[in-house]
Amino acid sequence: MKNLLFGTLAFSALLVSHGSMAAEQTVKLSVPGMSCVSCPYIVKSAISAVSGVSSVTATMADLSATVTFDDEITTLVKIQQATADVGYPSSLFGGASGS
Fold first, then answer.
1. In this predicted structure, what is the pLDDT of residue 58?
2. Which residues face 64 on adjacent strands?
3. pTM, full prediction
């Protein structure tokens, strides 16, 4: 009985220490439509509004946005839809799509 109790407590501690079991994903999106200094701000604002997104960096240097998100709350497709909705279609950096 003590072993069962200890095992249950150890597992509970593991869950608490790791928070939820959600997988955090970080992706880099190509956003080729960005053409002015305001564009990264608009893209960042649109992506940040998606529930489950924890961080966004958008840059003109390589026309990209790096996004960290909880894949149990949102999807890459929803993030890409957010950029498209504000006039900046995006794809995974390197050519793959999120579908």
1. 98
2. 30, 59
3. 0.74
Domain 21-92 has CATH 3.30.70.20: no
Please report, for the chain, the start and end positions of each structural domain, with discontinuous segments joined by +. 21-92
Q: Which residues contact 76 (CB under 8 A, 6 or more apart)?
A: 25, 27, 92, 98
What is the spatial order of strands in the sheet that 24-30 belongs to? 53-59, 64-70, 24-30, 91-92
* Residue 21: DSSP 8-state: -
Chunk the chain into consecutive blocks of 10 residues (it has 99) and report each block's average pLDDT, rounded to whole numbers: 43 47 89 96 98 98 97 97 98 69
Do residues 12 and 73 touch, judged by C-beta distance below 8 A?
no
Instruction: Compute the distance between CA of residue 78 and CA of residue 31 in angstroms, rounded to an integer.
Output: 15
With contact defined as beta carbons under 8 Å apart, do 58 and 30 qualify?
no
